[in-house]
Structure prediction request, 100 residues.
Amino acid sequence: MGETEYLNLLYRLARTTKLPHALAGVLMSALFIAIAGAVLLFLSPDPHLHWGYWYGMGILCYAFVIGFYGSIYFWRLFRTARRGDFPHTKEASPDDLVLK
Prediction:
């Protein structure tokens, strides 16, 4: 499966499913990552004595980024699929490789 076929599959699935279902998966995965960071913060409460505190803060920041940018990605994917304009699904041709 190439990149074009993969994008066509994503757009087709986005047209037939609902956005809240996709967002739930992204946000739940971010939630479980955040739980792991919160456990580290709970076990290492003092930032001056325990390196685990900073690892926990890093994991919490990572969870936020995964939830935020994953949600944006799915929102844009579903918006593009609903409009019907698929910008990146053109098949590559040999003329695309020529530098102009």
